[in-house]
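Subject: Sanity check before I submit

Could someone independently write out the structure tokens for this chain? I want to compare against mine line by line before I put it in a report. The sequence has 333 residues.
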Amino acid sequence: MLDERRREFIVLVGAAGLLLAAKVRRARAQQPAMPVIGFLSGGSPTGYASGVVGFRTGLNETGFVEGRNVSIDYRWMDGHFDRLPEAANELVRRRVAVIFASGGVVSAVAAKAATSTIPIVFVNGSDPVKFGLVASYNRPGGNITGINFLQISLEHKRLALLREMIPKAGVIAVLLNPNNPNAESQAHDAQAAARALDQPILVLRAATDRDLEAALAALVQQKIGAFAVTADSFLFSRLDEIVAFAGRNHLPTMGVERQFTLTGGLMAYGPDSGDAFRQGGVYTGRILKGERPADLPVMQPTKFEFLINLKTAKALGLTVPDKLMALADEVIE
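---
Independent answer below. Compare away.
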């Protein structure tokens, strides 16, 4: 009799365990899967470190925290633009919830070519209408919207600031990537700025590591007084190398965003890219909550910043003019 009761007890316990396991499986099945954001960039984690921080901040503002209720699949191309189409297609095959495209207009173009249904949010410095990304700023249409932060239209201001810092620089070089879709505009703007300022310049081009090595060597060979680095994902992904070279050869430099001066570059002027990425994160979060890209107008920057790395200036033996100190939004010491 006792053995029979034991068997009944064991059967009941086993049945209860099976019932509990079934309930757990049903509960898990009913839980929504964590959405995945495809983060597509033509640049590198180093070059866009502040941008990633800004993007996560924007997501947090809309209630999304990476690893808690949203996952991010990062695809970094390190300046190899030819790899972008396949990377975009991989994200589409993974059925990500949103594609966030940064690191140049080429990333957004690749994402748009890969899908007409998955929402896309871009952050770049190129005119999205000119490159066929959106129908207009106010009414983007389709599955794509984002932040345009006007990086490519500021060459005159950057060249003027650099000459203010180095009035006797002689020839100033401008480094750009000929494979960047904006390269022609960047060169034209730099040359127009040079004529207006009566400043001799030399345009140097680098699209590969070998090109970059040759361009940097030319800075020394031609006794360039200072140089500016234009907005480009390949060049951003080589900031450590560029800034280290400038330091070894005592060359003043001008960049386009905060990360340049944080890496050790002398100065940078441009839109607050961290804030632009934050806005991109906010848009991504809003889309995850159900809003449509077509209903979100393309935003433009409201914050610009001029930064000076005082430690680098001292290492170069430069005294920063009072005028520039007064203009600076931040001095890094």
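---
OP: Matches mine. For the report I'm noting this point. The longest helix spans residues 2-30.
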